[in-house]
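Section 5: illustrative case.
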């Protein structure tokens, strides 16, 4: 008789060990998120770190890098890497050991926060796009990608913070925050992405500026690139404003942390715009003094409340979910034969 592996939350590892490993990962991989997450209450902070560790690990596996360092893609298939991520993720969600701390960390936080396979697959589908060398043709394509790699993570973070399952408006705003983060990151990392053979600027945007495909980092197109970057950051600002509105539905420390993160990541995009054509000469980052300043401003806003945007973003979570599902594989058609005894009259 074959014995099945018993279900073990966190792959059988202690929660304390998983949290310690996750905290080390975030301290190394994202100083901005690590700083903002310190404002959470301890349970929320630990769950946020567990989720981050999984996201970071997936990103590094796909890119063949370590904590966001220089891209070093080896000869192994990126498509195979994504499939391995999906298998390990599903195994972790089923409470099975994965022999990987970060995937076991996902199993732990999923059990505590009601994270589902569908949520995780939405994130993995973004990695799958990168694995096949995908590039956005339209703004809709860009926003669908941002939903996969960041908006869906925002929704998962809302679950981590204990947002009620029927609070759809709050989940929408959490998605907006993820979209804002990713759009600012894209603006900042245009040069690094180009060096790795990637471009997240829609082809239609490039065509509008008469920039040939793959040539956007050439000096002669720098002025046009600055305009496109401003367009990215303007989109990010719209979603950031909507996210601030949703923060009002959170508990105070959660609201403070979310607003601090919005300030810090928003400052990245605004600094890229401020630098103009020198934006990619050196990487934009937020120093400790500015992080403290943004956190202080977030504290005041957490008390006073956020202003409602004049207009809400065009790219809603519902719209992006539909786009994601439409772009996914077609569901299998049931192949069970249809009984016909009651349809055709038997001959006498």
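Designed sequence:
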């Amino acid at each position: 008789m074959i014995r099945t592996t018993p279900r073990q939350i966190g792959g059988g590892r202690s929660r304390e060990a998983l949290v310690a490993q996750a905290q080390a990962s975030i301290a190394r991989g994202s100083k901005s998120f690590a700083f903002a997450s310190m404002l959470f209450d301890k349970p929320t902070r630990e769950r946020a770190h567990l989720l981050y560790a999984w996201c970071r690990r997936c990103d590094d596996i796909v890119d063949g890098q370590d904590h966001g360092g220089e891209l070093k893609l080896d000869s192994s298939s990126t498509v195979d890497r994504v499939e391995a991520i999906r298998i390990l993720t599903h195994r972790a969600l089923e409470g099975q050991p994965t022999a990987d701390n970060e995937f076991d960390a996902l199993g732990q936080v999923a059990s505590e926060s009601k994270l589902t396979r569908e949520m995780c697959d939405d994130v993995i589908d973004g990695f799958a796009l990168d694995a096949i060398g995908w590039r956005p043709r339209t703004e809709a394509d860009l926003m669908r990608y941002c939903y996969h790699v960041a908006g869906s993570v925002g929704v998962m973070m809302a679950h981590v913070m204990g947002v009620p399952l029927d609070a759809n408006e709050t989940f929408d705003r959490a998605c907006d925050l993820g979209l804002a983060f990713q759009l600012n990151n894209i603006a900042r990392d245009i040069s690094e992405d180009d060096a790795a053979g990637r471009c997240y600027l829609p082809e239609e945007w490039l065509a509008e500026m008469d920039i040939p495909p793959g040539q956007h980092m050439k000096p002669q197109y720098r002025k046009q690139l600055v305009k496109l970057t401003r367009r990215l950051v303007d989109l990010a600002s719209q979603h950031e404003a909507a996210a601030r509105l949703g923060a009002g539905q959170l508990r105070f420390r959660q609201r403070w942390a979310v607003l601090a993160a919005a300030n810090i990541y928003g400052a990245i995009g605004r600094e890229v715009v401020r630098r103009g054509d020198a934006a990619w000469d050196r990487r934009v980052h937020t120093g400790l003094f500015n992080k403290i300043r943004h956190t202080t401003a977030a504290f005041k806003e957490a008390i006073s409340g956020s202003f409602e945007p004049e207009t809400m973003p065009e790219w809603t979570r519902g719209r992006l979910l539909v786009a994601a599902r439409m772009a996914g594989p077609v569901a299998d058609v049931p192949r069970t034969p249809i009984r016909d005894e009651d349809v055709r009259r038997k001959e006498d």
